[in-house]
Each structure stands twice: as structure tokens, then as C-alpha cells.
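Cross-posted from the bioinformatics board.
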Amino acid sequence: MPIIHIDPVRYPKVVIALGGNALIRPGEAGTLEEQRRRISAAMAHTADLVTAGFAAVITHGNGPMVGQLLLQMECARATVPPMPLFMCDADSEGSLGYLIQQCLVNELHRRGQERGVATVVTQVVVAADDPAFNFPDKPIGPFYSEVEATRLKTERGWHLAEDAGRGWRRLAPSPRPITIVEQKIIAYLLDGGIIVIAAGGGGVPVIRLPNGEFRGVEAVIDKDRASAVLAAEIRANLMISLTAVEYVYADYLQPGQRPLKTLTAAEARKYLEEGQFAPGSMAPKIESALDFLARGGARVLITQAEKLPEALQGRTGTHIFP
Amino acid sequence: MPIIHIDPVRYPKVVIALGGNALIRPGEAGTLEEQRRRISAAMAHTADLVTAGFAAVITHGNGPMVGQLLLQMECARATVPPMPLFMCDADSEGSLGYLIQQCLVNELHRRGQERGVATVVTQVVVAADDPAFNFPDKPIGPFYSEVEATRLKTERGWHLAEDAGRGWRRLAPSPRPITIVEQKIIAYLLDGGIIVIAAGGGGVPVIRLPNGEFRGVEAVIDKDRASAVLAAEIRANLMISLTAVEYVYADYLQPGQRPLKTLTAAEARKYLEEGQFAPGSMAPKIESALDFLARGGARVLITQAEKLPEALQGRTGTHIFP
């Protein structure tokens, strides 16, 4: 299959998922100026894409920011009741959404484009009986000593695990996203020519109670999975996942490492089943890509934020087709 | 002027400003369950209003929540770089927006109404040369000892003042809101039958740089003033301000205290000029009401959240007309 220039007429509606590394990098303290610089760079490319005619929804990670918030809450817990995880997600949808929307508006303004950009606080429904609730496996927040970990286990009923010699960390369940509560609102905004920021940090996880009401739950939703569900529900054509690597690789970090430039869904699934992609890293991105393509998506692009312009020309990145 | 039943045909578009006391009350620790209970009660009335046919935008305060966040950030500042005030505003737009939208969706669901509710993270433009930046007067965050206050003044250039014998507090500037960046998006959502939560905590204060870009500034915008600007810009007909008192009073807490049931703008202005309304409390609400009415608003209602149903029947609350 030849790599083609990605045409907004052919792929009018795009969901762009910003990985954590488009927001903050290892070694950075995570000051506001550092975050703003990273986000501005990613938004410059996004502004080009919007200027070229794509209708865009931007989703993003929030791991480092929620980690900082958990640390702050822990520190002040004697005087301020700490909030549950899902409230931290909601917080970060506000503050990261604000930064992203402001950077994008500014980048568009530089290009002479006065477009509306809206951050929509997003709730994502998960199943109350998702098996993940019995097997929390997503490490979040600060590191604890073994003594502290034992105490937290007893006092708060947390699950904790030792993390690669660096200390103990809380584990949160990571249930599958089922549907986006605000999907129709997001689609309506796109129809009006507005660029939307949504499902930040995978969205606020909620369950539906037997009486039909929504309620937040202690969990973390994978951002790529939530992005795929959102992309399918708003009938996006293209999903772009911006991450730390230029390509998806076969035999990644092995002697025979090679970039995968174009893949059919069947080929991607074969590699996935062979265990070529790291769990918690590339594997959920590929699973999300397959989910999106199976539900009507036309194309997935996985690459680095800084390579996006070249990748849109078809000159780099991993492109996956149904 | 006779008090009439408030008719959604006559006043189709309403902005409802929730005061801090619709979210948290003095003496409450501010746990999530306490906040949820308060917000659900206010949203029950709002759901009735929406069911009756009003198109509604909800704005809200965030004082107690930002106070808690500032305390948490202060506590962990040795390990996590604290964020500026405007990022705290953005955080609270996310988390309070989430709580309000979920409570409202649930209350609407109980009434058989499946309506879209969207929280839009809102930026509010202030003037870079607003005189308030030279005279910070809005107390925020935790109380400090005199020794700490002196240190913070030197180390961080904060303005601090002694607060009624309770300790020293940081003072933030409170510039006038000029315009709402997301006003067209909010109006578009309303046109689509979606209920909008916006300008939480008065919105994130931003200035416009000489190159046309937006940038956050260290300030706090009065929630009622921001609500009035938003209400005027989206051409709302009615503004409802939910606060701690059933009525606006003349000679408040004096021997001759009397409720003001209906007022013309001219009458309200006269009372305001007489100094009848407390600065930082009722005065900005009345100023905001007058601003809204001068810019085309048709009616303002000021009352307690729990009195809203009766007030909509015209049986209580203070009603102000042009």
C-alpha cells in the first residue's frame, strides 16, 4: 500500500492524542514554563493541521500532573481532606485543557486564524463490574517506603506494589472505557468549526448506577483507549497518536529493530499477538488503533510530535489502515 | 411594578451564578460528599428551571477550593513547583465543573430529561494596566503568622494584610473582566440545547499581549462581574445570583433592616451610592446586576439557592429591572 499525502478532504475529522511526553519530559521539574514550551511546540503542528482544513479533537495524558497533585494532597492531608483520583483527573482536565487551548489559540492567531477552541470536561463510562477493579495494575502518584506502604494498605485499603527498586507505589484499576458521556456535545462543537480538547487523562471515570445516575469511581482510564472510543463515537476518520518514538518498531530495542511504516490492521494484530509491543506502552496504542479501525476509522498515524509535519506528508511515522 | 411569574418565553436565556455557599458552608470540612450534597440541591432547582424551558448557563465561585489547593501546594513546595493562581482557577473549573455537570445530568435524568451538559474551561480577558494590579485587595488562601508574612513578602513579592485578627493573608488583585474569550462557543452550545457551565471562579484571568497572544495573569476575577459580562455577551435575558441571603436588604443587620423585593436599576444604583451594600459581598453583585441591565439584560434575581423555586414564582427574592 503506497503512503499518500494525508488529505483533509479524505480524512476530514481527526482525533489527536498527545502523549505525556508532549507535555513534560523526564528530568524536567514540570514548571509551568516548561509545560507551556512543550505544549506550544505540539500546538504549532496542530495549528498547521487545523489551518490545512482538518476538524480536530485533541486528547492528552495527565500522569505527571496527577502525580504532583497526589503528592500535594498527601502532604496537606492533616488539614485538607484529600480528593479521590477521579477529582484529580477532573482538575487536570481544567488546567491542562486551559494551557492547551490557550497555546492553540495563540498559534492559530499567529497564522491569522481566529478559531474557537473549547476544552470540554469529559466523563467516560466504565463497567462497575469491569475485572480491572479486582486487579489494579496502573502505578500512580508518589513512591513510598515499605513501612509506609504497609500502613497505607491497612489504613486506606490501597493496593501497592514495589516498582523496579524505586519504592512502593499505589496501583489503580484501569477499566476499559465504554462510552463518552459528552460525545454528542463534542461532535456538535466540531460541526460548528470549533476545535475541541476532550477526554484529558483518559477522562473522568464514571459508572452508571442502577437508577441511571452517573458517579465517579477510583480508577484511571488509558488515554489511548478513551481516545479510540471517542474517535469512533464522533465518527472521526483519522486518529493520530503522538508519542516518544518516531515509528512503531518490530523487535524494539533488539538487534533486529526495524520501523513499521505501513501496516494493515491484520498485520498490526499479528505483531500484537506475537508480543512485539510493550504492555502499558505501545500495546494499548495498537489495541486502541485496532479498536478504532474496527469501528469505522479509516487511518491511524503513530509518531513523535516533532515529526508530525513530515508524517502528514507521508514521509515518516507508522500508518495503519483497515 | 408588579412581581410576575418568571416566564421562559419572556426570558429564554438565563445565567445562574452559584455563590460559594451553594458549594460549601462555613464549618464544613469540604469533603467531596459535602460538596456533592450542596451541589445536588442547587442542581435540583436548576434542573426544574431547565425542564421549564430556560436555556441556562451556570457560573460558580471557587474560593474554598482554591484555598485548599493553595494550602496543598504550599505544603509540598519543596518537591513540587507550586503553580500560579490562574492555574488553580483552571483546576477548579475542571473539578467543580465536573461535579456540577454530573449532578445536573443526574437531576435531569430523574426528571426524564436526557440533556447535554458541558463544562467549558473559560478564559476572561482583563486589562494589563487595570489599576487593581497596583492595589491587590482580595484575600486568598491560608492564614500566616506575622513572621511568615514578612518572609513571604520579601521572598515572593506577595502583598499580604492582616485579616480581622485571624492572621495574615495574601492579597490578589481583582481586575475588571472585559470580555469572555469563549463567549461564541458558549452561545453556540446554548443554541444547540446544551446547558453550559462556564466562567467558574470568575474564569481564568488572561491579558492580551501586544502581539495578540493570550497569557494567564496572577489575579482573581469576581465571579459576579464575570457572570454579568458573560450574560451580556451571550445576550441572556435573565441573570440569577444565588447567595447566602433570601433578599437584598436595605439597612442590612441594622435596626431598620428591610428586604428589597423589586427595584429598578435607578433605585438599586441609589442604594449602592448610599453605601447600603457591603463591599466585596453584596456591592459587586449589585454593580454586576446594573452592568448587565445597562447592556441589554431584562431582569436580575438575587436570592438563596433553596428559595429559587418560590423566587421563580415571584414570591420571594430581590428582582431588579432596567
